[in-house]
Amino acid sequence: GENVEQHPSTLSVQEGDSAVIKCTYSDSASNYFPWYKQELGKGPQLIIDIRSNVGEKKDQRIAVTLNKTAKHFSLHITETQPEDSAVYFCAASTGGFKTIFGAGTRLFVKA
Amino acid sequence: DSGVTQTPKHLITATGQRVTLRCSPRSGDLSVYWYQQSLDQGLQFLIQYYNGEERAKGNILERFSAQQFPDLHSELNLSSLELGDSALYFCASSPRRGIADTQYFGPGTRLTVL
Predict the structure, then answer these.
(1) Contacts of A47 (CB under 8 A, 6+ apart)
(2) CB of A55 within 8 A of CB of A66?
(3) In this structure, are residues B103 and B94 in contact, taking their beta carbons and an 8 Å threshold?
(4) What are the tens digits of pLDDT across the range A33-66?
(5) Which pLDDT tens digit goes with each residue over A8-32?
(6) CB distance A101 to A3 below 8 Å
(7) Which residues touch A69 (CB under 8 Å, ≥6 apart)?
């Protein structure tokens, strides 16, 4: 069946460094790719998303890139701060009723 | 604050019992999704409703059921509870169907089965 693979499962960086999380999807009909941040004890919150007609999107320190040919997309966080520490989930949606989430990446930003 | 509300925030119960989790979607959202998140696990999709009708089913156990009411709030019923049902249960909502929409998540209900 369709799935989304997310790597790495854990990522530790120094404050100020960049962090990159990568996802690969299997359903070529996927056309919407959101990223969520989940802090301890809270629900996932949307931080950025991209649709299939766009190759890159940026919002301040956060950017997402999409390669439809290779069926992968990535989250880039620059100038990381301790408050960026959280679990990040990628997802792929076909626009019907199916959104598949990746397994999550636990990001630690060391001060 | 996403605008999605869930009650209760915490629930402690015993094996074999039955509980009901409640979700109110964002104002105007017609779709409601339920997810289960066990300790250090990802989000497991359970079920989706759109405007009162079931639209998609994921890995939902037969002991679990859900419904969406005319006022669009939704309830997830968990029965014959087992220790392994202890988890965070999230509700999410989105505006439309047939279109890839952002899902907005509630704060979750933490269920502990003793």
Answers:
(1) A35, A36, A37, A59, A62, A88
(2) yes
(3) yes
(4) 999 999 988 999 999 999 888 899 999 999 999 9
(5) 999 999 999 999 999 999 999 899 9
(6) no
(7) none
Rounded to 5 degrees, φ, ψ at A82 are -55, -35
The pLDDT tens digits for B46-66 are: 999 999 999 888 889 999 999
Q: Is the predicted pLDDT of residue B96 greater than 80, yes or no?
A: no
- Whether the CB-CB separation of B55 and B48 falls below 8 Å is answered with yes
CB A21 within 8 A of CB A90: yes
Q: Contact B88/B110 with Cβ under 8 angstroms? A: yes
Nearest Cβ partner of B102 from A46, A89, A94?
Answer: A46
Strand partners, A14: A110
Tokens 């079920």 found at: B47
Q: What's at B66, amino acid-wise?
A: A
Residues of B with CB under 8 A from a CB of A: 2, 4, 33, 41-43, 45, 48, 50, 55-56, 90, 92, 97-108
